[in-house]
C-alpha cells in the first residue's frame, strides 16, 4: 500500500466513509506497520483537537449496613430473553460491603485478531471458548471437534482437532499440528501460515494444510499460493497442486484433495446437526422446569404466535393468564438456536415486557438468557419495578459489566442509602459482545447473602 493510498484510507476512516473491504485492508496495514499506526494517531489527534471534549463523571455509592424484607409489587418490568422466579421463603438479610465506581474508569476494550464464529463438538485444552468469542493471544489447543475462525482481515479458516494453532495477526497464523482449510478473500491476499517446515503465502483464494509429526501436506484448492520451505527455494503452486513432506523435509508431488478437508459448507451441516441435538435436550429440560412446583413465572419467548404482543407464562404451578406479559416496543428476533422470532430484541428505545406478579416473597431467584451487544448506560435493566417502593427489587447490569441487585429497605432518603445493594464481580466484557450468556441472581435470606451467577 502506497503512502498516498494509506492517507486516503485514513481520511475515509475518520470521516466514517470507508468501505468494509478498505477497512480490512487498512486494519491489516496498521497491525504490521508502526509508521502507519503513527500516521493514524497523528491524524486522529488532529481530528480530536477540532472537536469539543465531553467529561464523563461517575457516581459513588455509599455502603449499606442495614437489613429488611421485601415483596414483589403488582407491576414489574422485564428486559431479558427468558426469566423465571423461584419463591422459597425466609427472613432478613444484611448487605455486603459495596465497591465504588471509579471516578475516571478506563474504557474496557476487547483484544484479539479473530473471532470464533462457530464450533461443532469442540473440546479445548485448558480453556473454554464460546461462539462469538475473540480468540486470545498465544497457542490454542483444540483436543477434538471442528471450529470456524474468522480473522479480522476477512480470512475464514476451518480447523479440525486435534490441533495446535496461534493467531499472530489478522494476516498471519501458526499451525503446529492439525488440519486447516482457509478461504482468503481479495482484501486479505498475502495472508500467511507458518509451519515447522515452511511458510504458505496465499495469493487467492483457498488452500488446506494437514500438519502432523510424521508427515505434512499442503493442498491448493483454488487460486495460487507461494510455498516457502525452510532452507529451500520458494515455489509457486496453482489450483490442483499439492505437496507432501516428511521428517527429512523432502517434498513429494500429490494431487489436491478438497474432500479431505472440512470446508464452510460441511461445517454448517455439522453445526446444524449438533445444534438440533442440543436444542432437543434443552426443550426436554425446559419442559421439566416448567412443571417445577416452585416456579412462579416462566417465559420461553418463542412459544407465542409471532404476531402476538402477548408473552405467555408457562409455569404449570401458576397457570393464571394474569401473569402473561405484554410486549412493548421490543421486536421478535432469532434465539440462541437460530430459531426465527424465538427471542426478543430490546434495542428500540422504550422496549420492555410489562407483567404482574402478585403476592409477597422473602426469597427469590432471577434467571435469564441474554445477548448483550454493548452497555451504553450506567444502569442496563434486566428486571425492574415501576418505582422502588419498600421491598421492591431491581436487577440490572452496570456499564462496567457487573450485575447489580437492590432491594428497597426503608422509606425516605431518595438515594441509594435506603436500599440493600449487591454487586457481582465483572461478568460481561466487550469480548462477550453478541454472545448468549445465562445470568442468575439468588436472594437467599436464610443464608443471609445474595449470590450472582
What topology emerges from the helices and strands here?
Elements: H1 3-14, H2 20-32, H3 34-49, E1 76-78, E2 84-87, E3 114-124, E4 140-151, E5 156-169, E6 172-183, E7 192-195, E8 198-211, E9 215-229, E10 235-238, E11 241-246, E12 251-255, H4 264-290, E13 295-298, E14 310-311, E15 325-328, E16 331-333, E17 343-345, E18 352-355, E19 364-371, E20 379-385, E21 393-398, E22 402-408, E23 419-426, E24 436-444, E25 449-452
Parallel strand pairs: 6-7
Antiparallel strand pairs: 1-18, 1-20, 2-13, 2-19, 3-4, 4-5, 5-6, 6-8, 7-8, 8-9, 9-10, 9-11, 11-12, 14-15, 15-18, 16-17, 19-24, 20-21, 21-22, 22-23, 24-25
Largest sheet: 10 strands, mixed
Q: Note the total helix count.
A: 4
- How large is the share of residues in beta strands? 35-45%
User: How many β-strand runs?
Assistant: 25
Order of helices and strands: HHHEEEEEEEEEEEEHEEEEEEEEEEEEE
Average the pLDDT over all residues and give the rounded result. Answer: 79
Helix content: 10-25%
Q: Which word captures the global form? A: globular
Distance between the termini: 48 Å
Q: Report Rg.
A: 27 Å
Summing up helix and strand content along with how strands pair, one would put the structural category as alpha+beta
Q: List the uncertain runs.
A: 52-104
Description:
- The chain is α+β, with helices and mostly antiparallel strands and 453 residues long.
- Helix content is 15%, strand content 38%.
- Strands 3, 4, 5, 6, 7, 8, 9, 10, 11 and 12 form a 10-stranded mixed beta sheet that branches.
- The model is unreliable at 52-104 (pLDDT under 50).
